[in-house]
């Protein structure tokens, strides 16, 4: 139908403007799954695969769930350009001797659009949104080898049309406690569609990530370095290693962290003419208050196009 095609074109053109790095050279669907989830990961430019003790690891490497020191919950909100808004909820805790269990929801709403028929008659408005529900399990072997997996259900809707998919995330995390090194590897969004738009099957945004983190001994700084999208097709094999990000967390005190990051893929994709501005650079901070609560803020520069903001409120308990 003409309506459906017009709707899809409008939505994807708009989201191209908001996050072009996600859709660059992409022939997949449900690409919202490749957006950063949470203010802390966003302010570190998405370099989060090797991170520990944060329930938001469910979105990057499910093995990180088994590094939680306490039960954690997190609620996040994202403000992108135009009318695009998103959010997520994540909860994780240890369950007796079985291991660590977690659940997460991520949601994105693309706003409303005017709807026309083939004769250009206005039929009102329609909306578009996508959601993913994840259920995770993780455990640890001999204190430093962590492993985990998520089962994920995905829904996408445009007006009265919809599609669904089933996917899984797999991850491992190796921690060296004495020297404070972390090494993480994850495979995200491996799955298939259950139902399709217009009976046309599409691939899910498979993402292979490898990350390294190091807590410096003589500086209050935690460095994150990561390669993303290693499973993508490139004519030159080594071109995929350009998909790198780096982030740093400065511990100014027990209650305050400052964060900064750089995403090389986003900077390259956001280049407009001879100017890129500060595209690809990110920043943010985290606050600990009332002993059990955290507030995180993230800023993501989209260069000359604009910027995006993320907020998260977290809570932990024994």
How would you describe what is shown here?
This protein is mainly beta. The protein has one domain (2-317): Porin (Beta Barrel), CATH 2.40.160. Helix content is 10%, strand content 52%. It has four helices and 14 strands. The chain has helices at residues 2-18, 20-23, 39-43, 264-269, and strands at 71-79, 85-95, 99-116, 122-141, 145-158, 161-176, 181-195, 207-215, 221-227, 244-253, 256-263, 281-289, 293-301, 307-317. It has a 14-stranded antiparallel barrel. The longest helix has 17 residues, at 2-18. The protein is globular and about 70 Å long. It starts with a helix and ends with a strand.
CATH fold category name: Porin
* The CATH H-level homologous superfamily: Outer membrane protein transport protein (OMPP1/FadL/TodX)
- SSE arrangement, N to C: HHHEEEEEEEEEEEHEEE
Q: What is the terminal separation in angstroms?
A: 54 Å
Task: Let me know the number of strands.
Answer: 14
State the name of the first-level CATH class.
Mainly Beta
Cα radius of gyration in angstroms:
20 Å
Global morphology: globular
Helicity level, as a percent range?
A: 10-25%
Given helix and strand content, the structural type is mainly beta
Largest sheet: 14 strands, antiparallel, barrel
């Amino acid at each position: 139908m003409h309506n459906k095609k017009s709707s899809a074109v409008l939505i994807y053109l708009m989201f191209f403007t908001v996050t072009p790095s996600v859709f660059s050279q992409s022939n997949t669907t449900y690409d919202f799954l490749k957006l950063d989830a949470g203010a802390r990961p966003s302010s570190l430019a998405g370099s989060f695969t090797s991170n520990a003790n944060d329930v938001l690891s469910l979105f990057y490497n499910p093995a990180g769930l088994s590094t939680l020191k306490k039960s954690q919950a997190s609620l996040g909100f994202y403000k992108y350009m135009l009318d695009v808004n998103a959010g997520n909820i994540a909860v994780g805790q240890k369950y007796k001797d079985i291991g660590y269990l977690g659940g997460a929801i991520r949601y994105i709403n693309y706003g409303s659009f005017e709807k026309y028929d083939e004769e250009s008659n206005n039929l009102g408005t329609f909306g578009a949104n996508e959601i993913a529900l994840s259920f995770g399990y993780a455990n640890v072997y001999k204190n430093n080898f962590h492993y985990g997996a998520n089962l994920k259900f995905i829904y996408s809707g445009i007006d009265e049309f919809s599609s669904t998919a089933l996917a899984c995330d797999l991850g491992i995390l190796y921690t060296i406690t004495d020297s404070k090194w972390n090494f993480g590897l994850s495979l995200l969004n491996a799955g298939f569609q259950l139902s399709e738009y217009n009976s046309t099957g599409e691939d899910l945004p498979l993402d292979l990530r490898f990350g390294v983190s190091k807590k410096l001994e003589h500086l209050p700084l935690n460095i994150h370095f990561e390669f993303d999208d290693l499973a993508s097709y490139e004519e030159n094999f080594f071109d995929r290693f350009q998909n790198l990000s780096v982030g740093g967390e400065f511990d100014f005190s027990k209650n305050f962290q400052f964060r900064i990051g750089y995403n090389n893929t986003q900077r390259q994709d956001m280049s407009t003419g001879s100017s890129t501005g500060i595209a690809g650079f990110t920043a943010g901070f985290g606050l600990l208050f009332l002993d059990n609560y955290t507030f995180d803020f993230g800023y993501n520069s989209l260069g000359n196009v604009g910027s995006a903001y993320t907020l998260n409120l977290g809570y932990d308990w024994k």
